[in-house]
Amino acid sequence: MSTRTIGYARCSTGEQDTRAQADALIAAGADRVYTDDGISGALTSRPALDECLASLERGDVLVVKSLSRLGRTMRHLIDTVYELGERGIVFRSLTEGIDTTSASGRLVLNVFSALASFERELTIERTRDALQAKRRRGEPLGRPFRLKPNQVAAAQEMRAAGHNVRHIAHVFACSSDTIRRRVLHVAQAAGG
Questions:
Q1: Does 107 map to a domain?
Q2: Which terminus of the chain has a smaller tally of CB atoms within 10 A, N or C?
Q3: What's the number of domains the chain is made of?
Q4: What are phi and psi of 147, to 5 degrees?
Q5: Rounded mean pLDDT of 176-188?
């Protein structure tokens, strides 16, 4: 079985196109280049990337112009590259000079992994500290209610007048679930 080098290129909506990336990938030996044009890196599902990853076989090489083209977050990037390694697929990034066949390439990925883990822990810590501070100040936690108290009262009147939940939700430009939670549960709690 011969080793294939497969490229992946992506450009966001505001960028021109993937031609420059594809040219660089072909110059780096890519036999085929999958492209996602006008797709944000933040999206979980990217059709060409999904197809590209599914097509890779043990011994293949996945090459990208830059790490930012592959992962939507540092954690996603690291997880994707580790999954490729477990499948016996080599990963290369041209801009960062990462090649998982080399010790230095694996070292850089391990450093990135440690940074991603550190970033995640900092985010959790900041969130926990912010919630504790809100509790100490007596502030409500979570998202503010979509409906204000006067709107809840008006919605309750509409419900009492026989309007269905869907109609009330349409009037107040919110979801039916919001009406059920804020109107029906409030009414049940008051009555029961």
A1: yes
A2: C
A3: 2
A4: -105, 135
A5: 75
12 counts as catalytic: yes
Instruction: Give the active site residue among 2, 12, 45, 93.
Output: 12
Containing domain of residue 9, as a range?
5-112
Mean pLDDT score, 25-54: 85
Q: Is 129 inside any structural domain?
A: no
Give me 9's structure tokens: 């290129």
Total length of the chain? 192
| 137, HSE (Cβ side, Cα atoms, 13 Å) | 9
Rounded Cα gap, residues 67 and 105, in angstroms: 13
Shared domain check, 174 and 86:
no
Domain annotation covers residue 140? no
Tell me, what CATH number does 88's domain have?
3.40.50.1390
Q: What are residue 148's phi and psi, to 5 degrees?
A: -80, 160
The pTM (predicted TM-score) of the whole model is 0.60
Q: At a CB cut-off of 8 Å and minimum separation 6, what does 192 contact?
A: none
